[in-house]
Write a structure and sequence with these properties.
Blueprint: H1 13-21, H2 29-39, H3 43-68, E1 76-80, E2 86-91, H4 94-104, H5 115-126, H6 134-150, H7 154-164, E3 174-177, E4 193-197, E5 200-211, E6 217-224, E7 231-236, E8 251-256, E9 267-273, E10 278-279, H8 286-323, E11 325-326, E12 329-330, H9 335-366, H10 370-373, H11 376-409, H12 423-435, H13 440-454, H14 460-467, H15 473-487, H16 497-525
Parallel strand pairs: 3-6, 4-6
Antiparallel strand pairs: 1-2, 4-5, 5-9, 6-7, 7-10, 8-9, 11-12
Helix pairs in contact: 1-8, 2-3, 2-9, 3-4, 3-5, 5-8, 6-7, 6-8, 8-9, 8-11, 8-12, 9-11, 9-16, 11-12, 11-13, 11-16, 14-15, 15-16
Length: 526
């Protein structure tokens, strides 16, 4: 009697073949529809640019990002060379360096191109996760926008050119060094001190959380000697001629952080010992410029990356449930799985539509004339966009983590295998986005303070009606009533039952209110 054949012929080849051949843009009709709707007259140029960059992002850049993400290639520090010279070299895998060079070679911040080209390129790049490029891209954008407003010296103009257009083929990368051990999001509590010595500003002290530590330039906050005002400076990582010699600009990278996410990106603890730094903008306006320019662009990007993560997760989870068969039928034929897949796709689409709508409205305020800015209506528009950017950051980042977790569950046990799928890496990256540029509690507290301070000239009823234009009157009135009651509470800093209840209501309001905004954007697109 012959024995049964116990060799298992099962494989994932059909799903893997699809995944290796999918094009993030041309195979995503919904994303194309969103771009066409919001890009307006720029549609053809934006579409052409998206098609071209997607061929790089979806294949070569995806492969480089995956290859650099394995634990044995995690970046590390080499503090000294063989001759005991302090160099603080950040050793990164060659795949990361190649990816970085090619991504920044896209000249994302070229002023001659449509801002929609920058946006769609960034979204597609973010579909590959952080990969040691997403954060540097975001930080460089904030640096460019800051210098575009304030570069008034030869040094700052040189840095702006280096970051925007490149010099001799070399495109510079920016970073943001804001956080200190005692303050975190409380920038006013910073202790790093800047001294003016012989006409040159030099910071002394330490920063505790400095991402993109491999960057060429960094925006840093410091207090000028004898002042409690926080000023902004741009610091070169190396002075001219010293990069090749690995002589850093009078600061040390003391250690590299061990993070659960964005692991390919180095975040370090730095000590400054009189580095040359250039003041940017008025010395007493550092915090307002950090929030109004640097953090604004960073928070916009967190919302965009949330959409990118979700689009990829939804695409791959949907396809896998159409491929995988269990208990005699495809996974997507089970009502419980079908409901979750529909929810994953819905969140991905609402987040993407909302991000594009918010960016469109942001562009309208970003290019305003001085006369327009002097009017109350512009002040209201600017306030609305500021609050929406914070809402998108705190809601989108949390939604992204939830969606990625649900998408991974569609793969069963394979969903947590990092050599099977990139989704666990994106999940960890998304968890970092929840905290980066202000955790949820900090942003909700800021929203509360903003709404209270503005209610005299921008009542909550008017604010809600403006944000939810197109919604039913009943819905607008419901949200307006809730917001009015929330901001009429005197303070969030009294520990009592009433305040704890208000905190819970703010949390619910932010999520439900911004989801409604996203749903309106999605209905516009559809």
């Amino acid at each position: 009697m012959s024995l049964p054949d116990r060799n298992n012929p099962y494989n994932f080849n059909r799903f893997l073949e699809w995944r290796s051949n999918v094009d993030y843009y041309t195979d995503d009709p919904f994303l194309q529809k969103v771009v066409q709707y919001y890009a307006g007259d720029d549609w053809e140029a934006v579409n052409d640019a998206a098609i071209k960059v997607s061929k790089k992002v979806s294949f070569r850049w995806k492969k480089l990002a995956d290859e650099a993400a394995v634990p044995e290639k995690r970046p590390y520090m080499m503090h000294y060379d063989g001759h005991h010279n302090r160099i603080d070299r950040i050793v990164r895998p060659k795949e990361t360096e190649m990816l970085e060079q090619e991504v920044f070679g896209e000249l994302l911040f070229n002023k001659q191109k449509s801002p929609w080209i920058k946006l769609i390129k960034m979204l597609l790049i973010y579909e590959n996760g952080e990969a040691c490029v997403s954060c540097p891209v975001t930080c460089t954008e904030g640096l460019v926008e800051l210098l575009d407003k304030y570069a008034d010296t030869p040094e700052l103009k040189h840095i702006l050119m280096h970051c925007r257009e490149g010099i001799d083929g070399d495109i510079a990368i920016g970073a943001q060094y804001l956080s200190e051990i005692q303050g975190g999001s409380d920038v006013q509590a910073n202790r790093l001190e800047a001294l003016e010595e012989d006409g040159v500003w030099r910071p002394y002290g330490s920063k505790f959380f400095c991402s993109a530590t491999h960057a060429d330039y960094a925006v840093i906050t410091a207090k000028p000697q004898g002042s409690e005002d926080v000023a902004l400076f741009v610091m070169p990582s190396w002075l001219p001629g010293n990069k090749e010699k690995e002589i850093r600009n009078s600061y040390t990278i003391d250690r590299i952080k061990w993070k659960m996410g964005t692991s390919e990106l180095t975040s370090g603890e730095l000590t400054f010992n009189g580095a040359v730094a250039y003041p940017v903008g008025p010395l007493d306006k550092g915090i307002s410029n950090v929030v109004g320019i640097v953090l604004t662009y960073s928070r916009l990007t967190v919302g965009l990356s949330a959409a990118a993560f979700m689009l990829r997760a939804a695409r791959e989870a949907t396809q896998y449930t159409e491929f995988r068969e269990v208990f005699g039928q495809k996974v997507n034929q089970f009502p419980m799985a079908k409901r979750q897949i529909d929810e994953i796709n819905y969140f991905a689409q609402r987040t993407t539509a909302g991000a594009f709508k918010l960016y469109r409205d942001f562009l309208k305020t970003d290019g305003a004339t001085s006369e327009e800015k002097s009017k109350l209506e512009f002040k209201k528009k600017q306030f609305k966009i500021r609050e929406l950017i914070m809402l998108q950051k705190l809601v989108g980042s949390m939604d992204s983590t939830d969606v990625l977790r649900k998408a991974m569950s569609m793969f069963g046990g394979y969903g947590i295998m990092e050599d099977f799928s990139s989704l666990p890496r994106l999940y960890r990256d998304s968890a970092i986005n929840e905290l980066w540029e202000g955790p949820r509690n900090v942003l909700m507290s800021q929203l509360f303070r903003d709404m209270q301070s503005a209610k005299a000239w921008y009542p909550p009823t008017e604010f809600v009606a403006d944000v939810l234009e197109g919604a039913t009157q009943t819905l607008i009135e419901t949200f307006a009533k809730e917001l009015s009651e929330i901001i009429n509470h005197p303070s969030l800093f009294v520990m009592d039952d009433a305040t704890l209840d208000i905190c819970a209501r703010i949390d619910r309001f932010c999520t439900e209110f911004f989801h409604t905004y996203q749903d309106l954007a999605l209905s516009e697109v559809n």
